[in-house]
Amino acid sequence: SSLNLSASNQAGIVQLSQCVACILSCFLVEKIGRKPSWLISCFGATTFLLLYPLNGRYQWSNWIPIVSLFMFQFSYGFGLGTIPWFIIPEYFDFSVRSKATAFCVAFNWLMSFGVIFIWPIMNSELGQYDSFYVFMGVCFFGFIFGLFGLKEPISHEMRSELLATLPIDN
């Protein structure tokens, strides 16, 4: 990013943003709901995956790369990185919940391997900056999925009412 920081420090700052976002999402997802959190996350990830390669191509500023990577990781950690881990069991009946969760976890790791495997190929074939547009497109389709396919298990008000009626064991 042409900043006067070592690459390790820059990477640490960027990764810290995802950690902070994951912690914040623990509290905010219950307040604002899964769908809005997902949409905010996808919108942010899409926006910053667009900003990074545009800056690389047009050299607007030397601070935009670290800010866009920081904000991408923050956006990702806020919803895309957290919500799938707890929403999958909510979508399936108890009788198949463990199998569905196991399948989704295995699929997630398979796709992570695929991304790591194809990244160098994409960079050599598409170029460093155009590779980001592919992932931006995935995040954009995640936004579309969130608009039409993501459902709250129950409304926030109903969840609060149910939690208020539960007996608390000491």
Topology (SSEs and partners):
Elements: H1 7-32, H2 34-58, H3 64-80, H4 83-91, H5 94-126, H6 130-149, H7 156-165
Helicity level, as a percent range?
Answer: over 70%
Structural class: mainly alpha
Mean pLDDT: 87
Per DSSP, the total helix count is: 7
Indicate the proportion of strand residues: under 5%
Based on CA inertia axes, which overall geometry fits? globular
Major sheet description: none
Low-confidence stretches: none
End-to-end span in angstroms? 53 Å
What is the helix/strand order?
Answer: HHHHHHH
C-alpha Rg, in Å? 19 Å
Strands, total number: 0
Q: What does this molecule look like?
A:
By secondary structure, the protein is mainly α. The chain has helices at residues 7-32, 34-58, 64-80, 83-91, 94-126, 130-149, 156-165. Helix 1 (7-32) runs parallel beside helix 3, helix 2 (34-58) runs antiparallel to helix 3 (64-80) and helix 4 (83-91) packs antiparallel against helix 5. It is globular.
In short:
Helix content is 82%, strand content 0%.
Q: How would you describe this structure in keywords?
A:
170 residues; mainly alpha; 7 helices; 0% strand
